[in-house]
Write a structure and sequence with these properties.
8 strands, two-stranded antiparallel ribbon, alpha+beta, elongated, four-stranded mixed beta sheet, 208 residues
Length: 208
């Protein structure tokens, strides 16, 4: 229990405590307070819009921005538990969202949605990853009746489709759904209907 270091701070005790909490939280690691994957996905959505709509001048969010967001979130807090509760409700992402202009925040919601609609299911999550085009995944049967997959960014970008077999493994990754039905599905149907006879494998995939 030896004192390693001791300093007197003459500033506002509340502010000083928040600053100490923030530095302690950063030292402990962001993953203790928020899902880093959720942060990465949010930043990937912003990056996607910056690449797709360069004229809108979306900011480039960095690790430093994330650290600064955590510091802002610590304002008025006194404990890790308080920080965890606030961060678990999306606090850090909301602080990062504050770096966007109101019009950019609206575009994020409209042009880089978190979910997309497909024929067999109402909505599926859109996955955004750094350096990769946005993609969705669902059972192959969920795409029956569709000639093309959903688009985002006002129709500028076609989502990459991961068509899954009943074992949840992709049988095809494509943006050309019509071409898949025409060229690849007949052979896929033969193979999967033998493995999974209880599932629907119509000859005409345009029939749901």
């Amino acid at each position: 229990q030896l004192i390693i270091d001791e300093r007197r701070i003459n500033s506002d005790p509340g502010r000083a405590g928040s600053a100490v909490l923030a530095e302690a939280a950063l030292a402990a690691g962001l993953q203790r307070f928020v899902d880093p994957e959720a942060i990465d996905k949010f930043i990937a959505r912003v990056d996607f819009l910056r690449d797709t709509f360069p004229e809108q001048e979306f900011p480039e969010l960095t690790d430093q921005d994330v650290a600064d967001a955590l510091r802002k979130l610590c304002a008025g807090l006194k404990s890790f538990q308080e920080l965890k509760e606030l961060a678990s409700r999306g606090g850090i992402i909301e602080v990062l969202r504050g770096a966007l202009k109101p019009a950019q925040s609206q575009m994020l919601h409209q042009m880089a949605p978190e979910f997309a609609a497909i024929a067999g299911r109402r909505q599926v999550r859109v996955n955004y990853q750094a350096g990769k085009p946005p993609w969705i995944e669902s059972r192959l049967q969920d795409f029956f009746g569709m000639t093309q997959g959903p688009t985002i960014a006002g129709g500028r970008v076609s989502l990459v489709l991961h068509l899954l077999a009943p074992n949840h493994r992709p049988v095809q990754v494509t943006t050309d759904l019509a071409g898949f039905w025409q060229r690849t599905y007949p052979q896929v149907r033969k193979e999967l209907s033998r493995k999974y006879p209880r599932h629907s494998w119509p000859e005409n995939p345009m029939i749901k």
